[in-house]
User: Fold these one by one.
Assistant:
Number 1:
Amino acid sequence: MTDLLDSDVDATPSRLGEVRPLLELQSLSVAIDVGGVEQPILRDVSLSILPGEALGLVGESGSGKSMTAKAIDRLLPDGARQSGTILFDGQDVSALSGAALRSYRSDVAMIFQDPRVAINPVRSIGDFMTEIMVGNRRMRPRAALDSVVEMLGRVGISDGRRRLDQYPHELSGGLLQRVMIASTLLTQPRLLLADEPTTALDVSTQAEVIGILSELQQDLDLAILFITHDLELASAFCDRTAVMYGGEVLEMAASTALQDDPLHPYSAALGAARPRLNERRARLDAIPGRPLSAVEAPRDACSFAARCRHRVDECVAAHPDLRPLEGGLVRCIRAGELRAARKEVGHDAR
Amino acid sequence: MTRAEAVALEVAGLGKTYGDVVAVDDVSFSIPVGGSMALVGESGSGKTTIAKMIMGLERVGAGTVHACGRDRTNPARSLEERRRRAREVQIVFQDPYSSLDPHQTIADMLSAVVRLHHRSLSAADCRDRVAQLLDMVGLHERHGQALPRGMSGGQRQRAAIARALAAEPQIVILDESVAALDVSIQAQVLNLLADLRDRLNVTYLLISHDLAVVRQLTDTAVVMRQGVVVESGSTGQILDSPQHPYTQHLRASVPGPGWVPPRRA
């Protein structure tokens, strides 16, 4: 096993160990060509997901979280140059072709933020859902319909047969997102890439969809890469969470630890910037400046340094590595020292 | 402490139907001058329809709307009347990218609004006013020369707030105005909105589904479901001890430490 995996073992001593990760990203970097200049969009991203595990990927605009999912799903834009390795079940995903690639595409499913954009508006729900079964799987249309109705039932749509004749515009956003989820389950995937799957939904519908994903994760032993901008949602749903910024991972930790004891100043600042449900605060601790994309982030300094309240000269002298700390991984040279100071003061200084 | 407060915005028995669909049914509330009220609800609750009726973008179906003591239930009869109403109530939408003209610089946009409402203003005074507006929302003077596409999402939303303030309104409707912003930027804009309220004594009507944002920015709240008010009162009370089952359900749906998604029936 590589060093990378060993460092992940530190992140979850209780669950990893013997189990082989379902998905493993090893130093994944992606660059695209912009006007003849190669610009990075992902930088040295290493993470792993165990079978049946929910891993959160949290970040703001341009952090690279969606691009990570696209790289996994082999949906990178034309001309993108990728280095590093993506392993699925031990196989190099970039090397797959033909039948092996088709089988990979069945194993890995993706759902997007807005189901109205992702589902063909002029086809009925039944057509949309049976297409893959009849087309790729050579199933008889009637048998395909039966399994579609069963899948709709799994996501809480009990009157599935009636829904088959309906069109996307006749369904609410929450219902349509559930149709989207059901459609991805038809190929019996082992990994679900969920890119902001509840961002466009109402709060109570979001809770429903999260509940459904949670059930599917348990019932089908489905691994989920859950991409969101909402740290609290990721913490509530995911076993572990990675925080991304400027195209790289700044922190990876158990979700509860990330919420109670964030190691990277950015993770802490993100948590502190959100208004609270339980109390009104005189002022929110806003982070100055705006999030940097991978293209803008400095290559020879900490990418968050410009906005960090704990910045010292060393932070801009070299690009920090992702290092183990307190069972997690953190890309900050001051993380250990800052944490010790917080513990000494005896209160959470975020 | 108690004194009769001047009312900035008051709607009474407000209603709207589209064909057989009742979008808004008998909604009443009022906001004192300098106050801040949230209209909380999910899709189809009628909250945006209410905002449109207050703005005059949608005809009032039933009931009345008063802003700054003047009746605006019926459409404006004259250009003068329309402009006066614009000086009373302004709106900031969720997505500044679609609500800003892509071909107009921010400074041009602001000066157009300033001139519309102060037609006797000299060119120099207008420039000063635009610079003041940019400064007020935390934008640099160079942002004035930028087009919306050259700005970040947070900067665009600041520009949209500046445009609303350019008319010197007494009431600003914030229609999901911080919902599309990144977390770190959302905090900046929420702080800005709180500062502006302190400084200008402007009245806010916040339309939002985000209960944490509602807590941070408003004093009172009205919770709506399917066009009907289910609960209203002080924001703190509604969030701390929601009385209506729907409000309780909304509150329980918000993720937080130890949260378990309510299981479906």
Note: Chain A touches chain B through 46 residues (CB under 8 Å).
Number 2:
Amino acid sequence: MKVAIAKPDYGAVGGFEIVVQRLADGLRRRGHDVDLVQVDATTSPTSHLPVEISEEQLLLFREFFLHLNMIARFEELDLSAYDAVLCTQPGSYAVRHRRKVVLFYHHTRSFYDLQNVIERVRGHDVDLHRLAAAIVRDIDAFHLTPQVRILAGSLRVKQRLTEFNGLDPSVEIFTAGLDEAFLEFEGPLAFESPLCVGRHEFPKRTELFIHAMSHLDGIEGRILGVGSFTDRLKGIDAWLRVRHLDGHGRPDRSICPVDDGRLWREHTIHMTPEELLIAQAIVTARGLPSRVRYLGRSTQQELLAEYTSALCVVCPAFDEDFGLTCLEAMACGKPVIACTDGGGYIELIEDGVDGFLVAPTGPAIADAIRRLTDRDLARAMGARGRQKARRFTWARAIDQVERALLAETPVGASQVIR
Amino acid sequence: MPVDLPPLQSGKLALVMLRLHADFRQRHGLPPVPSIAGDLDQARGRMVLNEPGVLHSPRPVIGQAIAGARRVFWRILKPVFDRQTDMNRSLIRVLEALLAEREHHRHVHYDLSLRVAELERRLRLAEREHESRDRQA
């Protein structure tokens, strides 16, 4: 079978790009002829729009224009030479093909499940943002119909498709596989420092981990990853230390309690670079060391080394689509701490068995970490998580995608007019 | 904190978004999305009853007789239609007033959002000064 994998090209390699690559390789090994068909999403975000958009307008609502442009570009792709198309990220499901399968991990989230959060914090004109969201949803609804075969990246993603698109029976849940490097790891385990892994962007909430660490004495947290928020996180880190100074300039966590809701929704985004620099200058002048170490980007080997030596892995993200980090950590025998509003993480963690689900606050995360400083408890929970993670193999994931691609889809399903 | 765009800028951007949406729906054979402004435009065209062609009949022989009969009926029924038309006109005026009021509220809302943003900025400055004084003390 000749298969095209349609995907916007964001010029970066993240977790999803790895999933796509693994699927392509797996399908090739099973004798299919697979091409990755990418559409550049980094330049000319208005190239296929019939209305002229000024630079200023583009700057204000880039995500909206980019989404519509992607839809237009995928609509005009001619993939008739392929027997089947696997569509991936937003926009690619606009491909016209009689046999298409949508591997759906998320909507353009600022117009769906993150709409309210974004309206509150980003500084968008709320009325305009609502208009943009209504338009995006209407356009998406044309392409995401019950006739299209959809594999949702998690139960949480399926719930969003039900809530926003009225799709339910046609949606099957797909679970990606874990890299063999994690699944087959048999080396020694150490239980040293809490670890937080992920891109530094909204709403990954790494700041909650930083806040949690500021409540723990004698333990250093480790942060792996980079992103557009990395410098802000360092500023927030300094700001938290300044918040906890008493009138004599001595650290005292009992004063100035931090509102975690505002911390991640507002402070992280709206603190000015000057404010962050001032906070950093104060902590430097007073010699207040950070409780976290920033490790930056890592290779897979370094990531594995970090997992295997971590005390536990903290996943503070808000309403995550799936939670690959959680599964990787479990495969490496580590207990995982996530938040009760963590989306996909909630499906993977059994509270008190292989990790903890806690309130989305620094002190609550700190309490959970404190409990896991009992190494025997951490080791026992990690072992249970490891058993669970073993089920997530790539062979099973590729089976599922192959079955969906081979299944008959109603002819012209992608062009049904409502 | 969130700040609205000035109403003019916001209106232009909304227009661009609506055009893109209309273009998508048209290209895909979907009916246009109904809007109050669109409905009003259509209603304005039906505000008057000056349609002389309506009474005319194209039939070759009895056309004139039919047109004459229609004129008679028209003279009888006209007051009823006039009354209905008056009501429609009033309704349209009410809708136009509502639209104008909504536009006015958008301006007021924008001015208010600017004032709130300014107050918040001052509060943050005061809070920072307070903290700095505490530390110095």
Note: The helical segments of chain B are 7-27, 36-45, 63-136.
